[in-house]
Amino acid sequence: MGRIQGRLRHPTVCSDREIECLKWYARGEKVKRTAEILSLSPRTVRFHLDLARAKLGAKSLAHAVAIAAERGLFFQRLF
After folding, report:
1. Which of 7, 9, 38, 45 is deepest in the core (most CB within 10 A)?
2. Which long-range contacts (CB under 8 A, 24 or more apart) does 47-53 make?
3. What is residue 2's DSSP assignment?
4. How many CB atoms lie within 10 A of CB 73?
């Protein structure tokens, strides 16, 4: 683990695709729309969201978004 601005940086456990799906969820996009944006099936998007939630130890997707944001995962890649 490294440090970012005096805080411990958690190792990234989520894949790029999991974080990408979580970002669209955080922006308020529905699974179906996220699937269209990313050229995936809705089932695949749900799979990635569920994996991200589990890997982050979150109780819900909203909780997963909060954890990912706190850990700076949204700023490490993509968008």
Report:
1. 45
2. 48/15, 48/17, 48/18, 48/20, 48/21, 48/22, 49/18, 49/21, 49/22, 49/25, 51/14, 51/15, 51/18, 52/14, 52/18, 52/19, 52/21, 52/22
3. -
4. 23
pLDDT in tens, 27-61: 999 999 999 999 999 999 999 999 999 999 999 99
Q: Please state which of the ranges 3-17, 18-32, 57-71 shows the lowest mean pLDDT.
A: 3-17
- Contacts of residue 41, defined as CB under 8 A and 6 or more positions apart, other chains included, come to 35
- The answer to whether the CB of 22 falls within 8 A of the CB of 68 is yes
Backbone dihedral angles phi then psi of residue 48, each to the nearest 5 degrees: -65, -40
* Token pair for 43: 């089932």
The residue with greater pLDDT, 1 or 33, is 33
